[in-house]
Write a structure and sequence with these properties.
This protein is mainly α and 140 residues long. Helices cover 74% and strands 0% of the residues. The protein is built from nine helices and no strands.
Length: 140
Amino acid sequence: MRNSMRILIAVSLGASMPAVALAGPLEDGIAAYHQGDYAKALRLFRIAAAKGDAEAQFNVGKMYQDARGVNRNYAEALHWYRLAVAQNNSDAQYRLGFMYESGSGVTVDKIEALRLYRLSAAQGNDDGINAVRRLTDPNW
């Protein structure tokens, strides 16, 4: 009974607090990104990325690839995407595959691009699925 009362109190207190107070660096970074505060988003993503959060690592890479709040830097994008790919992040697999396909910061390597697209597609990532079809289906 005591534990359930503590849970009820904690839930009640949490419900009255603003959502931002309950969010972590990743969630706050996503909110900042959507508000166009890229400097804050990058700072928060880096905090989560340093703790090994694959989605945060992907987001840091995306900011460098897309030049959001930073100068475009493909080497940085590659670094962060590779960290996220090592943790099976399907968005990072797709984006890194695109970099290999297009030669953005790396030598064009369509075999590596297709390998990464297939990893992404295997997780149900729509972009990865479409990229695999585009590269393998002559009728696509």
